[in-house]
Design brief:
heterotrimer; A alpha/beta (370); B alpha/beta (411); C alpha/beta (141); B: alpha/beta; 2 domains; 8-stranded mixed β-sheet; 9 strands; C: 141 residues; alpha/beta; Rossmann fold; 4-stranded parallel β-sheet; 4 helices; 16% strand
């Protein structure tokens, strides 16, 4: 049970007013949230310091141009942010930020983390193929009815971790049938309660998990199973993987968009993965031919080894892929399997170490002894 | 722009090859023969990945792999010069290979050679008349439809506008535009430069009416290859030359008009900024660009990491600060780094997830800046990059203005 | 199965235990199939999963990691990391159906010459039954 600030305004207006309150009362020096860029619906994350600029803030626009966890990490690479900032981001972005902090790529201090029960986001192509406005009009109906909004990112349709328990403040949207009239702002932590003191609205106590959120979770779990099974039905194995990644340009866009891939110079972009002509000549002697540039499957498998255990299934990778490879579904499947193996949920608990880079003395004791 | 130059005299004759069974087959048969006759040890050519509609560059020795090869696929997957650089960045090929590339890929390869990212030894460069490529995102969404459309593109050379915008306005789609031109602006020093014609061989498709193709030796190396293939370059190339000139004139005109229109749409701070409203700063464009070869791009490096105080104070100055930061800095910065070598290949626009017309914009700027330096990228191996060379007496007009100087006119 | 088919197996052996154990097996002239190409690392903890992956994608029929038994690592903890990395890699190979049986890890101490011989023999047999790595045929990999 949490304290919930109820504002008698629609959720978009209510949240904007709450953010305005935080900024004008100087409880925070800035609001980090999505901001409108043009009439098409394009949005960008922005750090807003003047309350008048908040009129362009659209924190719930169902788009993710970049994983916000990456940005918050970038702010605080060197050290913690020096003034309190309220950051509005989605559950997977928050989990990614926490995963980055575990890798010393950011600092949590001075962030007031505001998130929401998440209905998902649309693929970025919706902006370019002109479907966005039509999709958005159906979006909120789906959220209210705790249904999977159609045409959202596949990873969103299959996401069961849409309640961001790590946030200080959670805006409840899923299953809230009176979204246009009332805004429910869950004060999830002491910090959240502190910052909300003095905001207009009533405080009640409520449970964020409801029958509706459970229903949605179940639907999404089924969708996930369906997506993963479909991948397996078409088969994996070398031949199938070659087909799946046939169009890959080795642009590494997936890696650059991924919040967990934080390395300034990725191993796969370094000289380690550049080969001399003679190594190619030897290979074509053996095989008759070799793909140039080589190492497509090696790159993807290697990237899985490096980051899949922390994959938060945000779906950025698939969105930036120029050739429509379903990277996010494949990486989610592998990530899921690894997370089960190590009983690990990325971004759930900041104290929990990343499985890749730590160990227990008593584990997997049967390995290697046969 | 006339295409008749001194160097042109070298290849007014070529080999006419029958293409009654299809252009692809005619070309691939030549390549099969070249492997048999040991003209080359291996060939770098796009090959269709089995059971898919995707194309990947393959360096192949095995003739049977040529069955699914396509010298002119409907899309540009990896830019050919980038593929060549991946092969020969760290040294020369010890075996003889042939690489078949589009004209823009040939030119990019030469630029990369100047940047020491490609060793050209033991590589025979074969260029081919290029009608353009289909937009990559369209093609991957509906390969069947765009495959069919590409057939029309080949039929109605230069007229089908379903190709990528930069391809539709491309004025360097054939051999003449790969050869050094003598223009009024060419400095005396440059005019004495020996003619180093690149490529070695050119495959002409225009003017053949899909019934024949033209094998054109461009230099001595190319002539030697034809000898080994037992071809005598005795046939007249008039049909090809005439058609090339005809299409060239159309394309020149179209390019100028297009660029003028585009300029009006994007010039000025407000309009230019608006173009990049939807830019995610993903840097895909930079990574697929053949000229952008830096192991670590400046715009990805820690140089652009700021302290939290700086981010906050910048945000406070403006009231709101967009993230990722410095979108325009990235594009203008990348422009200043590479636009003198930009070959308008269009790989950048294909890779952009938000369909921003980067190739069109960079091409527009490239045309202007390359003109200002009287530099055409990829034409002359020995011509240094404009920013690597200087003359003591040049660009006097940009120095401290006095009554004697007038501002430069950009048109 | 072709009797003469000898698979190419890449073995990453840690210097202090596994490599010494292999050496002991050699000195004792134990019969071992000539399948293993041994790469000596100072500790099994040095084995980057990418070494194993790259060997696999380059066409190695099998890849085996060998090191000290847990608790006996010359550098105290290296083999614990190796164990985790192996488990992670194996899981990925399983999910992607990349013939995870071609990858193995076995602990071999410096005195376990016969154990080294037995493990090499058994792994070679397993790989023989699997046949050559199909990656060897793949151009578009």
């Amino acid at each position: 049970m949490s304290n919930v600030l109820k504002i008698k305004k629609g959720v978009e207006q209510g949240v904007n007013e709450f953010l305005k309150f935080l900024l004008e009362s100087e409880k925070v020096k800035g609001i980090f949230a999505l901001r409108k860029m043009n009439e098409n619906g394009a949005v960008s994350y922005s750090l807003i310091t003047h309350p008048e600029e908040l009129k362009n803030a659209v924190p719930f626009a169902p788009l993710m141009p970049v994983n916000a966890g990456k940005i918050l990490s970038g702010f605080t690479l060197e050290k913690a942010i020096n003034e309190p900032i309220a950051a509005v981001l989605r559950p997977c972005e928050l989990r990614a930020f926490i995963e980055l902090i575990k890798r010393t790529q950011g600092n949590l201090d001075n962030y007031l983390l505001i998130s929401s029960t998440c209905g998902g986001v649309y693929p970025l192509k919706s902006l370019t193929n002109g479907r966005f406005k039509e999709q958005v009009s159906q979006y909120w109906e789906s959220v209210k009815n705790a249904e999977i909004a159609s045409d959202v990112r596949p990873t969103c349709a299959a996401c069961e971790y849409f309640i961001p328990q790590q946030a200080d403040i959670i805006i409840a949207t899923v299953g809230k049938k009176d979204l246009e009239k009332e805004c429910s702002i869950f004060l999830n932590t002491k910090k959240g309660e502190e910052f909300a003191k003095g905001a207009t609205g009533n405080i009640v106590t409520e449970e964020i998990e409801t029958k509706d959120t459970s229903n949605l979770r179940q639907k999404r779990e089924e969708q996930k199973k369906e997506d993963f099974d479909k991948l397996s039905k078409d088969g994996f194995g070398i031949k199938a993987l070659v087909k799946i990644f046939a169009a890959c340009l080795s642009c590494h866009g997936c890696s650059k968009a991924c919040p967990i891939c934080y390395c300034t110079l990725c191993d796969f972009d370094s000289k380690t993965h550049e080969y001399s002509p003679s190594s190619h000549e030897i290979e074509i002697e053996q095989k008759g031919g070799v793909r140039i540039p080589p190492g497509t499957l090696f790159f993807h498998t290697g990237r899985m080894i490096h980051m899949a255990v922390s994959c938060v299934s945000c779906g950025m990778c698939s969105d930036v892929c120029p050739v429509n490879i379903p990277v996010s579904t494949i990486f989610s499947k592998v990530g899921n399997s690894l997370q089960k193996l190590f009983d690990y949920l990325p971004g759930k608990d900041i104290e929990e170490p990343v499985p890749f880079g730590t160990y227990k003395e008593e584990e997997f004791t049967e390995i290697g002894e046969e | 722009m006339s295409t008749q130059t001194e160097s042109h005299k070298n290849h007014t004759k070529g080999v006419i090859i029958s293409a009654k069974e299809g252009i692809n087959k005619a070309i691939l048969d030549i390549f099969k023969k070249s492997l048999e006759k040991k003209c080359f040890d291996a060939i770098l050519i796009p090959v269709r990945v089995p059971d898919t509609e995707s194309y990947a560059w393959v360096l192949l020795k095995d003739q049977s792999l040529l069955d699914e090869a396509n010298p002119l696929p409907p899309v540009m997957s990896v830019q050919g010069a980038k593929a060549l650089s991946s092969l020969t960045k760290h040294g020369e090929m010890t075996q003889n290979i042939a690489a078949i590339l589009r004209p823009c890929e040939i030119r990019a390869a030469v630029e990369l050679f100047k940047l020491k990212q490609i060793h050209l030894d033991n590589i025979s460069l074969i260029s081919i008349d290029c009608p353009g490529a289909m937009p990559l995102s369209d093609y991957v969404t509906d390969p069947e439809k765009y495959k069919k459309r590409f057939k029309n593109v080949l039929d109605k050379w230069g007229e089908d506008d379903s190709v990528r915008p930069v391809c539709h306005i491309c004025n360097r789609f054939s051999l003449p535009s790969l050869l050094p031109q003598k223009s009024a602006k060419t400095s005396p020093a440059k005019q004495d430069e020996p003619n180093l014609a690149i490529p070695d061989l050119h495959i002409g498709l225009l003017g053949g009416n899909k019934e024949k193709i033209f094998l054109i030796p461009v230099n001595l190396k190319g002539r030697k290859i034809l000898e080994k293939l037992e071809f005598k370059p005795d046939d007249s190339l008039n049909l090809w030359e005439n058609k090339v000139n005809e299409v060239q004139d159309k394309k020149e005109k179209r390019r100028n008009e297009f660029n003028q229109e585009l300029r009006k749409k994007i010039e000025g701070q407000e309009k230019f900024t608006a173009v990049f409203d939807e830019c995610l700063n993903c840097h895909n464009c930079m990574r697929v660009c053949p000229i952008c070869y830096c192991q670590q791009c400046f715009f990805d490096s820690a140089s652009l990491n700021l302290s939290p105080e700086t981010y906050l104070s910048r945000a406070e100055k403006k009231g709101a600060l967009r993230f990722p930061l410095d979108t325009l800095l990235f594009h203008l910065g990348r422009m200043s780094h590479m636009v003198l070598s930009c070959v308008s290949c269009g790989a950048c626009e294909d890779a952009c997830p938000m369909s921003i017309p980067v190739a069109q914009i960079f091409s527009l700027v490239a045309d202007q800046t390359q003109k200002a330096f009287d530099y055409t990228p990829g034409i002359n191996k020995k011509e240094p990059l404009p920013l690597q060379a200087f003359l003591e007496d040049e660009f006097l007009e940009v120095e401290t203005p006095s009554e004697a100087t007038t501002p430069i006119e950009v048109n | 199965m072709n009797e003469e088919y000898m698979p190419k197996i890449v073995g990453f052996l840690c210097n202090w235990c596994a490599y010494t154990g292999a050496d002991l097996a050699g000195v004792a002239r134990l019969k071992i199939p000539p399948s293993l190409r041994v790469i000596r690392v100072m500790c099994s903890g040095r084995i980057d999963p990418l070494f194993v992956t790259r060997s696999f994608f380059k066409g190695a029929d099998g890849v085996i990691m060998m090191g000290c038994h847990p608790g006996d690592c010359h550098y105290q903890k290296g083999n614990y990391n190796a164990r985790r990395r192996y488990v992670l890699l194996k899981n990925i190979f399983e999910t992607l159906d990349l013939e995870p049986e071609r990858v193995d890890l076995s602990w071999v101490s410096a005195s376990e010459g016969p154990r080294y011989a037995k493990i090499t023999e058994e792994f070679t047999e397993k790989i023989k039954k699997l046949g050559p790595n199909p990656v060897k045929e793949e151009i578009f990999i």
